Amino acid sequence: MPIIMAKHAGFCSGVSRAVNQALKLAEKHKGINTLGELVHNQSVIDALAQAGVVANNLSNIVSKEVIIRSHGVSPQVIDELKSQNKVIYDLTCPFVSRLHQKVADYSENGLPVILVGDPAHPEIIGTIGWCKGQTYIVNTIEEASALPHIDTALAVAQTTFRKDLWQSVCEVLKQKVSNLSIMDTICTATIQRQSAAVELAKQADAMIVVGGKNSANTQKLYRTCKELCSRTILVERAEEISSGFADIKSDIIGITAGASTPEWSLKEVVTRMTDIEKMEQVTPEEVTSVENAVENANADFMAQVEATMVRIHPGQVIKGTVVQITEADVCVDIGYKTEGRIAREDLADQDVKLGDEIEAEVLKSKDSDGYVSLSQRNIINRKVWDELVAKYENHEVVEAVAKDVVKGGVIARINGVRAFIPASQIALRFIDNLEQFKGQTLRLHIIELDQQKKRIVASRKSVLLEEEKSKKEEAWNKLEVGKVVEGVVRRLTNFGAFVDLDGIDGLIHVTDLSWGRVKHPGDVVKPDQKVLVKILSLDEENQRIQLGLKQTSEHPWENIEEKFPVGSVVEGKVVRITAFGAFVELADGLDGLVHISQCALNRINKVEDAVHVGQDVRVKVLSVNPEDRRISLSIREVLADEALDTDLDDLAMPSAEVEVSEVEEE
What residues are labeled active site? Predict the structure, then answer.
């Protein structure tokens, strides 16, 4: 007897939540009333009654505390209960609450709403109370076709309505309403159970639908299965299954259940089928597990059913589909006998939507409400650590925000993980005040990682060194001997000036600063001064660059004969005195010699008797020798010329006076 259990069957998260909460409230308040039956399943109602949860109508509520069932009620009912000073516990299914909110928002200004569902169902009755305009209720395609023409309306569905029928009704409504807004409010669990039942009914020879006969959800499942599999029965209890229902030896028997059907009802049906099998003396090997369908399995069918419900354990990572969303948590269908629940603070994405597939870790196989307790936080943490380990092993750069300054360094957060940056690793050079980094986003290398202790040590210095090295390599590739480049003077020494060329330093030796004599580099350049320099030599292996500043200007001996023609008188400064004469600087790097014999009009014994160092003098160019780079100068000839001019002036003055006096006498 191959038996196949539907993938999705039994309590949905909303019903499970309502039942568990009701039982807790019964313990707390020693008896409590529900406004109508909590769910449409007699076995559940009986179990609740034994625990002290009794269903009553609005007119005969006995207890002070009242539970609003999962079907929900209208605002008017809530107001009536408040007027009776009742303590209200609202266990309305989140999908129904969402339906109420949608119709209330849409009809705020009196716009009409079309409710697609059973007009006698408590969910539809309650929803009508939330509509503030005209309300139309249709349950079939024919009823939708009979509607009058409507200008504008919103169409919503009872949360347990058949998906295929809803889609067909909507097609008709599109022809009836000029401006139709459609909102699919069918519960995800309902859709899943209907889809699973359809797939199972297509391959089964006989179908058993387990659930309350007054449950709309279960009735819809029954009709759906009946259309596909003629031998379909609806049972509330296992005893209702007759031994002749199916051919135990050869038929494939499918089992499904509505969202209000408890797990124990399913187990009773399984047990019943096992008993029938034993009476027919069918070997255990013929029974198949839910998971393997018609394949052979163990003899204990109940154990097989439990096995198909997905075995879970704390620490296990599983995937599931979001089927319910509340302010406090999210319920996930994980293919297990009960849904999983993730607290809001344990979600990776707060914008999760119904139908989203998510991955979570099992914290507990059963929490206080009977759900599987799930969390995404640990998965996220593991993924983050896995990423950090990979970045550490690959020496990749990570970004972190500096949060606090502590003794010895800075605390930063790398993807939410705490990391310590020692003070010695925060910059290229020691920095005393680390407060300046607080709040900054830093680029780091992880230099130590202990996943077991959750300990990370990071370095910003390492990144800066690599960036500096990369910049230097890039800068070196741009350099060529003989090329003139721009740099910035960074520091001066007695032997020269260091110039920054895009991150690498080159040296201008003191002899290459100027064509003239330089006592100290500071006489020519200053720190932070931009200069154009010529690259004289490159030694990348030893990281040495020889630069020249004077080489960027014309050599003083170029076109010397044009600059200082023979016979011209020029000014200069005495820069050096020797026994044979005085050297006079005519321009930077250009000295001429005044021989001792040319230093004065009269013969002198020492050059110092005529001139001294630093004295400005006028000299005449006697000769220019570019090849030997020699210029002969004369102070004597300038003095002689000046003396001659003076004598001539003296001789001219008396003659002029005579002529004047002669004119006066005449």
Answer: 123
